[in-house]
Amino acid sequence: MARRALKLATLAAATSGIYLYGNKFLDPNDFGVVRVGRAIATTAVITYDYLTSLRSVPYGSEEYDFLKSQVHLRSAERLRELCCANRGTFIKVGQHLGALDYLLPEEYTRTLKVLHSQAPQSTRQEIEQVIREDLGKEIKELFLSFEDTPLGAASLAQVHKAVLQDGRTVAVKIQHPKVQAQSSKDILLMEVLLLVVKQIFPDFEFMWLVEEAKKNLPLELDFLNEGRNAEKVAHMLKNFDFLKVPRIYWELSTRRVLLMEFMEGGQVNDSAYMERNGINVNEISRNLGKLYSEMIFVNGFVHCDPHPGNVLVKKCPASGKAHIILLDHGLYQVLSDSFRMDYCCLWQALIKADMKRVQKYSQRLGAGDLYPLFACMLTARSWESVNRGIDRSPVSASEDVEIRSNAAAYLPQITQLLNNVPRQMLLLLKTNDLLRGIESALHTRASASSFLNMSRCCIRAVSTYQRSKSHSLCRRAQISLSEALSLWQINLYELFLWLKGSQLGNWVIALLSRMHHST
């Protein structure tokens, strides 16, 4: 079997080489034998390790589980080294995998998370070249000052602080110059390698990753599209006064250069920063949940890269209010109405622990007989907690360990699910895991208020959709009345929870208890 793996890897090298050279849309000189060879060699070594290390060990034994964890770790480290060496699209895909905390083995997510802080930096000369080509001027002609050291570097671009000639301080996002040329070739190479690996491991179902990269990468590489997304979400969520989205300066923006208002703050997972600046951690977590519930359930237009570097917090000196600053608007998921309604109904069923409706709407979203696993993936809770009600108790340490270990134990079933669910679900799962990571860092995970706000958004979304499809005035009035009643019940329950946890509530309960005992 191991020899077969090496033969297939060699065949992949030859096949991909012939395909690349024969494809008129690709320039093999840009690829380079080292770049392609590195990816093929890494894939072959990882495949060989899985085939040989676990071959003679009884499946399901303690030794098997231990060795499998070691192979996962070695493979994740090799994959990380490949991403850092090949940069660009490889880092982007590695970051995506590293964000799937409750869907992939912990060895992979923990190892690949560092790619968020190990992205490459373009040189000053490369930055000058991009600006010259896209804006037709030198840096010194456009800016009074331009900081050489970037504020941050990502897989596709980096951001510099600068001051325009009129004195405005701006953030300048500049694309790495080689990313555009390499991205389509990188995706093609990944596709060929994944197809070969699937021949060796039939349960290996990761083609969805390539499909998502094919669809989303061209959009992320168009900074004009990112600017439009930023303006759209700022208008869409204008009622949230705590949200700040940088203004775009269109006159100096192109597909590879984006000029925007400069905003600064602490990362949203930095609880020490919030404590130093008098920012309420629970308020930030609650407001972040409101933003995403509104985006997902009500608007169906979702910012899908909320890692801590893209979500900042800052206390406004004038008002004393804490602001959430949302950055990097390149990756959005647009949800269809039918998908959004099924997703709303599924979450309502999960919150109410209505297992029949959980099964119904999970299956409508492609989960099939794996709906219990799908419910656990969505909520990052155990099946026992899902049955009991995910709002009944917070996540315990033992439950968190159980969920993470299940990600390794049920990897074939998880990858099967990821292949079967609608493509819209994939980025939502990644977004859910990133948000849970923030909540976990702030120790605010699974609060009752977050589920109540989700319920409000689901009720509003479903009611608005039903009204839009109804032509009867009487029916629309019934829908509005039902919506108002459901929202009133949630408000009443929220008041009960507040009283239960407040000093006034404790005093009232004590008084009622005394009155009961006296009678």
From TrEMBL:
Gene Ontology cellular-component annotations: mitochondrial inner membrane
Ranges for domain ABC1 atypical kinase-like: 115-361
InterPro entries (UniProt xref): ABC1_dom (IPR004147), ADCK1_dom (IPR045307), Kinase-like_dom_sf (IPR011009), Mito_struct-func_regulator (IPR051130)
GO molecular function per UniProt: kinase activity
Functional description taken from the UniProt entry: Appears to be essential for maintaining mitochondrial cristae formation and mitochondrial function by acting via YME1L1 in a kinase-independent manner to regulate essential mitochondrial structural proteins OPA1 and IMMT. The action of this enzyme is not yet clear. It is not known if it has protein kinase activity and what type of substrate it would phosphorylate (Ser, Thr or Tyr).
Family: Belongs to the protein kinase superfamily. ADCK protein kinase family.
Identification of the protein by name: AarF domain-containing protein kinase 1
Organism: Balearica regulorum gibbericeps (East African grey crowned-crane)
